[in-house]
Amino acid sequence: MKTKIQIPKIPKEQKTPFVNQLLEIIQQQFEQIQQQAEQIQQQVEQIQILKDEIAKLKKLNGKPKIKPSNLDKNTDEKKKKKKKKKNWFKRSKTKKIEIHENIEIQPDEIPEGSKFKGYSDFIVQDIQIINHNIRYRRAQWETPSGEYVIGELPNSVSGHFGNNLISFILYQYYSCHVTQPLIYEQLNEFGIEISAGQINNIIIKSKEKFHKEKEQILATGLEMSKYINVDDTGARHKGKNGYCTHIGNEYFAWFESTESKSRINFLKLLQGENKDFVINEDSLEYMSCQKFPDYQLSKVIKANEKIFQGDAEWKTYLNSMEITSSKHIRTATEGALIGSLIYHGFNKDLAIISDDAGQFNIFLHGLCWVHAERHVYKLIGVTEEQEEFIKSTREKIWELYRSLKIYRLNPDEAKKNELEKEFDELFTQKTGFKTLDNVLKRIHKNKSELLLVLERPDIPLHNNLSENDIREYVKKRKISGSTRSPTGRRCRDTFTSLKKTCRKLGISFWDYLSDRIECKNNIPLLSNIMVSKIGDITTL
């Protein structure tokens, strides 16, 4: 909720340094008041929600919803323009529908001499939800030696619950976000004799092949892609705060929940199945760029061992080198992880697009323009002049953004220099509005990351893809809350990754689950489909 303080217009000749200082103080106080007002408004809304909930529990009438009046709207000012008529044609909605049953209906009375002219089809779509129980009667025979032989179950039978039922439970839980109690209630009403514990086992137990396919998705995505979008969100586990990191692009989505969202954590996620630490030229270069002390760097350079397997070996090495400062340990660890990534073939030209979170600022890093502009959008002008500065600046930012979008389609060296000049002029201007000038100065420091598109027209200008993908995780979190077991947390990450990747590759998640549960393997590995799709794009 934005409000405006009416300050009398002060002529320029009267704007002494003292007056400007007072205006700046007013601006700071107003921003503090505005923040407090927003907090109060949120508390009022929360109180109203609680009041409405209490009213429902007491079976009382809640707060009435009164629609705003339309009397003040001037309909004459905005006349509706007549839209050009388009030549529409009716598309057949039932052309691709598979017909399972034909029922022929004759007229009640057919006059004598009438001629048959075919059928007028009327298609009704329906679904059958019934329990279908199978009893395998395994014949037992006693041999002359006294031993028994018994009929073997088909390979498709893995337990007392059929493949379709297992696929249905997984689809309901991971795709439709139905909670376990509701699935239990639903299946019991369908006539399925199953316990809550058995449903839980179906959801999280024996899912190694799904976990393995998820890891292959990340390895293939990092190897084949030119860029990735990254983001993170909250993910509570066992009642403690945690984080879920998303990595993906148009072809895949990968989620992993951890206790931390540090740069070390992000580098370990990029490692995938590799868990080593490597000291090489790349790791030493990173440490040097991060201002790792020379006396510590010299110790690392003289070290004989170059590869350390696991955290235990790495910690032992750091202790032996007498690297004990938390800051130095962090820098050395980040460098060794970067060394490991490049040692195992990580593409240093892979662009990483983020919303300016520090842990993602490694290798070739690009920033989201939407998040950068948001700093200007959040500003509140005290005077009309300040409001006009904010408005005009935002318009110029989006005008530059549109120019960059055009440049991506047709890169040009002359246009590149022109856009760099426009960027400098926009974000180094001095408006006299100190808060705005500071924001613009901060954005200008990120010039190389915001204008990475000039060198790499193939990358996006925003991080919307990652924002949209991570909503899938947020929806699940809001419905089911936190996870309670490591297996449950791992399964949530795995099936969210598989579902989003299936959707991006144009594969039905239901068909995917049925194929994997029944072990048909008619649908190739998702990583193989990614290779074919990304390969087709790169050859164009």
Structure description:
This protein has 540 residues and is α/β, with parallel strands linked by helices. It has 20 helices and nine strands. The chain has helices spanning 17-57, 163-175, 180-189, 196-204, 208-224, 263-271, 281-289, 294-302, 310-320, 326-343, 369-377, 384-409, 413-427, 434-445, 447-450, 452-455, 464-480, 486-504, 509-517, 526-538, and strands spanning 140-142, 148-150, 227-234, 243-248, 253-258, 276-278, 307-309, 351-354, 364-367. The strands form three sheets. The protein has a five-stranded mixed β-sheet with strand order 5-4-3-8-9, with helices on both faces. It has a two-stranded antiparallel sheet with strand order 1-2. A two-stranded antiparallel sheet has the order 6-7. Strand 3 (227-234) and strand 4 (243-248) form a beta hairpin.
Provide the descriptors you would attach to this structure in a database record.
alpha/beta, five-stranded mixed beta sheet, two-stranded antiparallel sheet, 9 strands, 540 residues
Mean pLDDT comes to 88
State the helical fraction. 40-55%
Q: End-to-end span in angstroms?
A: 49 Å
Strand order of the largest sheet: 5-4-3-8-9
Q: What order do the SSEs take from the amino end to the carboxyl end, as H and E?
A: HEEHHHHEEEHEHHEHHEEHHHHHHHHHH
- The percentage of residues in β strands lies in 5-15%
What's the tally of helices?
20
Low-confidence stretches: 74-80
Shape verdict:
globular
User: Structural class of the secondary elements?
Assistant: alpha/beta
Topology, please?
Layout: H1 17-57, E1 140-142, E2 148-150, H2 163-175, H3 180-189, H4 196-204, H5 208-224, E3 227-234, E4 243-248, E5 253-258, H6 263-271, E6 276-278, H7 281-289, H8 294-302, E7 307-309, H9 310-320, H10 326-343, E8 351-354, E9 364-367, H11 369-377, H12 384-409, H13 413-427, H14 434-445, H15 447-450, H16 452-455, H17 464-480, H18 486-504, H19 509-517, H20 526-538
Parallel strand pairs: 3-8, 8-9
Antiparallel strand pairs: 1-2, 3-4, 4-5, 6-7
Helix pairs in contact: 2-19, 5-18, 5-20, 6-10, 7-10, 11-12, 12-13, 13-14
